[in-house]
Specification:
With about 350 residues, the chain is α+β, with helices and mostly antiparallel strands. The protein is about 35% helix and about 30% strand. The chain has 10 helices and 13 strands. Helix 2 runs antiparallel to helix 7. The longest helix is centred in the middle third of the chain and has 21 residues. It is globular and about 65 Å long.
Length: about 350
């Protein structure tokens, strides 16, 4: 495995060549990756790890590197797959994460570990498809920790086209809620951005609605970090004209019901973020249901294959999906004494917390 600096002129050529054959989702396209690299501070830039056969690249991934002192005492050399390992910078939430590889080239988790350089104690694999790496194949020198295991609901758009009615594919309860909400708001129009400037205008309203909704719950929302917001404004400005960015706005009676921000590549539509209006009668008017139903019908009509809600156990995602995958957030640790001690302390803490919860008063 060769390791290249992110600024190496070969990086773009290798990634684009693999992308052309692999047809990945948007998070693994060069369009996303180039802007991610450009937005990162220099000390957080990952390196490109390249697997070659007969002198030609067959797979690659970015490896973030970070040294930290966990709990103030535990030194850890961290490596992370297609992320930086820095919490703030990884708010961009790359999901369905994996190696970018030529068709027919796959690796078990054990094989991936054998390929990587040995200069890490813990390997972080965020938001990978559950079937992508099989943890049970790993050798005795490592342990695999599953930090999160979440549903990744999606809509099979071929089924929508076959049914000619997306809502008919859903449960009776969800169908009823969507139709009742539609009657409550009256005739509606789905507005799709037609230019980068138009997309930026819808994005502005999306951010405003999203932020207001989260502040009502005492939280700041996804766009509070200026770095996060700048990244997306740049992405929209530079990639909208290429058909990769979709900003949608549903309106009825002169009022915005909600806005949707999607990323599109190779027939895979990723629902990235939304901003929804608040209504006094929240039990009957479901702005998220209405916006997604309209966006899904549009995606099906455009001939796309999948409308992906990405990871999360939110009820609306399960209700609006036709199918579900699963995403895992994994950590692979070398079997080091320091990790054994950390695990023992964590188990003691959990036991103590459980004991305290049973105490009177």
């Amino acid at each position: 495995m060769a390791i290249l600096d992110a600024h190496d002129r070969r990086v773009e050529e290798i990634w684009r060549t693999l992308e052309a054959a692999a047809h990945p989702i948007y998070f693994l396209t060069w369009s996303w990756t180039a802007r991610w690299l450009a937005a990162l501070p220099g000390d957080a830039l990952p390196k490109l790890a390249v697997v070659s056969e007969a002198g030609a690249p067959v797979a690659a991934c970015f490896l973030g590197r970070r040294k930290l002192l966990r709990h103030g005492v535990l030194p850890v050399r961290l490596a992370s797959l297609n992320t930086t390992g820095v919490l703030q910078l990884d708010e961009l939430c790359v999901e369905h994460n994996h190696l970018l590889a030529l068709p027919g080239h796959t690796w078990s988790l054990a094989a991936l570990i054998e390929l990587l350089p040995r200069d890490w104690d813990e390997l972080v694999l965020p938001a990978i498809d559950a079937a992508a790496f099989e943890p049970r194949t790993i050798g005795p020198d490592y342990q695999v920790l599953v930090d999160r295991d979440v549903a990744a609901p999606f809509v099979d758009l071929a089924r929508v086209r076959a049914a000619r009615d997306y809502v008919a594919l859903l449960s009776a309860n969800t169908r009823s809620q969507i139709r009742r909400a539609g009657r409550a708001i009256g005739p509606s129009t789905l507005e799709a951005a037609q230019s980068a400037a138009h997309a930026a205008e819808i994005y502005d309203e999306l951010v405003e609605l999203h932020t207001a909704s989260w502040r009502e719950r005492g939280k700041s929302g996804a766009f509070a970090d200026p770095w996060f917001d700048r990244f997306h404004r740049t992405l929209i400005a530079e990639r909208f004209a290429h058909g990769e960015i979709e900003l949608l706005r549903l309106r009825a009676g002169g009022q915005t019901i909600g806005c949707i921000y999607n990323l599109i590549a190779n027939g895979h539509v990723l629902f990235y973020q939304s901003g929804l209006a608040r209504f006094p009668d929240a039990g009957h008017i479901k702005p998220g249901y209405l916006c997604h139903a309209a966006a899904i019908e549009r995606a099906a009509a455009a001939g796309h294959a999948v409308y992906d809600f990405l990871g999360g156990d939110a009820r609306y995602k399960a209700s609006l999906a036709t199918d579900t995958a699963r995403l895992h957030w994994l950590r692979v640790q070398r079997r080091l004494t320091r990790f054994a001690l950390e695990d023992r302390v964590q188990r003691w803490k959990r036991a103590y917390t459980a004991w305290r919860a049973t105490r009177p008063g």
